[in-house]
Amino acid sequence: MPDVRLPTVLRSHAGGASVVEAEGETVGDVLAWLESTFPGLAGQLRNTDGTAHRFVNVYVNDDDARYLDGLDTKLTGTDEISILPAVAGG
Amino acid sequence: MAIYASALDLIGNTPLVDISSLSPNPGVRILAKMEGQNPGGSVKDRASLAMIEEAEKDGRLTPGATLIESSSGNTGIALAMICRVKGYRIKVVLPDNVSVERRQLLEVWGAEIIPSPGSEGSNGAMRRAIALAGEHPEWVFLHQYSNEANARAHYEGTGPEIWRDCPEITHFIAGLGTSGTLMGVGRYLKEQKPEVQVWAIEPPVGEMVDGLKNLDEGYIPELFTANNGFDLLDRKMIVRPRESIEWTRKLIEVGVFAGISSGAIQAAAVKAANLIDEGTIVTIVCDGGWKYLSAGVWTDDLDTVEARAKATIYF
């Protein structure tokens, strides 16, 4: 089961947890699982068409999933997923 | 040696240094482009000069004008230096959790600092700058995140310099802040050699910044979308503070005294070197280490420095 690290802004919707053990074989599965397990997250991670929210970056072991296989990126039990809001620098 | 008419003429044309002794793979060379050599001390001199000259050309900037910009430090410092030389005034919206040296350097160049809450990060500083610019139409807001001259400075400068000095390049790795460096250099290099891989590195800022109220306060720079960043990049990864500091320290072994974001980029270069058989990786050393001395990056216990870095914006 992949562990998911949640950003501070989402923790209150997941009972305050910073890490949750999620279910799913792909990144898309995990996002769907999170939204159905924690109703407060519904609509926060994905758009209505199931694609990832524009300002949500999902990392698999620190790699942005958009540049892997996106929502179809396959996961193993040892993968760690991090969800972070998009932030600029400079 | 040549005599330059102005310190501003020293911007750009930075050297590449071979730091392959840090490469874990003997088949992979790593070359670092030394942007700390710019007179303002960072890669941001390039975009800042290009944005100011563009605004002078199109008539937005006239003598005695006042600029406003938001910055986590380096762009503000670069703009302030150029403004000082050219005779403009500048106000910089700066998150209050940047290193003390960033504030000091802004003061050195005569910028007025408008503090913004560190918990809101760079995104919050930018929102404040947009609001202030709206209230003060007499101020010139160059908006580094959407200003095409930012990426053009790298398309016309940094990119061609790398191609001239290192046509054997296989990977280009840089930090993603405004995306100007990655978009400009990445686009130029791929036009010359489409198989060049372009990798973006980010700090996990979202973990350090607690003040976002919802994910809609996230921000993707207009420059990134305008340049098809999602297609241009081949890979994007976060490098955590501890690893970034470890590699900032390792850079010292090869004589490179650099900031923490440069350490993050070298950490990613090492990951890339482990994934390929052979190649030449060009990385950006964004700035020198001077602004990070107060953070004890090289001198204090690693756990202590990591905790400090987690509360600081250094990209």
Task: Estimate the helix proportion of chain A, in percent.
Answer: 10-25%
- Characterize the overall form of chain B: globular
Tell me the quaternary state. Answer: heterodimer
* Shape, principal axes of CA atoms of chain A: globular
Strands in their spatial order, largest beta sheet of chain B: 1-2-10-7-8-9
Distance between the termini of chain B: 34 Å
CATH classification, class level of chain A: Alpha Beta
The H-and-E topology of chain A, N to C, reads as EHEHEEE
Query: Which parts of chain B are unreliable, with pLDDT below 50 for 5 consecutive residues or more?
Result: none
CATH homology superfamily of chain A: Beta-grasp domain
Summarize model confidence as the mean pLDDT of chain A.
92
With helices defined by DSSP (H or I, 4 residues minimum), what is the helix count of chain A? 2
- Indicate the CATH topology of the largest domain in chain B: Rossmann fold
What class, by secondary structure content of chain B? Answer: alpha/beta
How many strand elements of chain B? 10
Which segments of chain A are poorly predicted (pLDDT under 50) over 5 or more consecutive residues? none
For the structure shown, list the relevant keywords.
heterodimer, A: 90 residues, alpha+beta, Ubiquitin-like (UB roll), five-stranded mixed beta sheet, 2 helices, 5 strands, 17% helix, B: 315 residues, alpha/beta, Rossmann fold, 2 domains, six-stranded mixed beta sheet, four-stranded parallel beta sheet, 12 helices, 42% helix
